Predict the structure.
Amino acid sequence: MVNYKELGLVNSKEMFKKAIEGKYAVAAFNFNNMEQMQAIVQAAVETKSPVILQVSSGARKYANQTLLRYMAQGAVEYAKELGMEKPQIVLHLDHGDTFELCKSCIDMGFSSVMIDGSHHSYEDNITLTKKVVEYAHQFDVTVEGELGVLAGVEDEVSAEHHTYTRPEEVIDFVTRTGVDSLAISIGTSHGANKFTPAQCTRDANGILVPPPLRFDILEDIEKLIPGFPIVLHGSSSVPQDLIAIINKYGGEMKDSIGIPEEQLRKAATSAVCKINIDSDGRIAMTAAIREFLALEPTKFDPRQYLAPARETLKKLYMQKINNVLGSANKA
Ligand code: G3H
Ligand code: 13P
Ligand code: ZN
């Protein structure tokens, strides 16, 4: 058993308080390997931003949970080596689905966990979330719960349709569970195909325009639980220039569409203080690797294509921090 404080990590409590007061949001970027972790830390250091390193169950299976934990510990030391005196880094479990998984992460040094009971009945969600909160708070670990269902794929759980968060449930849910932050469903979804073309309209140039986020629901929630930290999942924007590179060099990503960055920028100025971005990073790496391999067919050293992929990823993260979330210079 190791407490996250021994690893130099922080929980999300102060981070979210400052984000709400300062009208910005902190990025939660998923990582599964060394290059992603390096890009996240480099971007956080260069922008002087707090950051949340997220690990999904899929990441734990892919990369080994112990290795990921030591990489997060390494991330703190790496940030210091890059010149950040006091790195503000949270190690967070993304979409934890059982008490046992959350407990295992808390016991091995995570500073924050998500218990995603959104696929259960309302009462079962409360029971499960409360159990995780009671365990986590003994160790000062912060807990994110979820109300409402996002469409798309999250680990092995996939939902074809979303269910918006019902504002009338939020006071009861946060009071009875004791969660520290609440993920809500207002029209974002996971993955690179967030909307079907039938759900979109087209602008004058024929470009697909997705339906807007339900800011009315967000505002209702903010009125009911003022100052309570809100989380948005499924917040990749699916940059079309990167999709074009992927498709130019042999990819087949059709009808890919994300959440427009202006809408995320607006959300970041509200009580939304954590914005989850994973797919955009995957797209950035894939675009860079496809381009490199297509243009340099004789090269075979993974470092030669992973280095430009890592650089593309870092630029994407810095762009998000600087222009979308507004968390630069807040660490
Ligand atoms: O919400 C899902 C995240 O993008 C993690 O995805 O389960 O494939 O690692 P993953
Ligand atoms: P995206 O698929 O939109 O990047 O969402 C990531 C996410 O919500 C991770 O929990
Ligand atoms: Zn998610």
Q: What stands out?
A: The longest helix spans residues 302-325. The first strand starts at residue 26 and ends at 30.
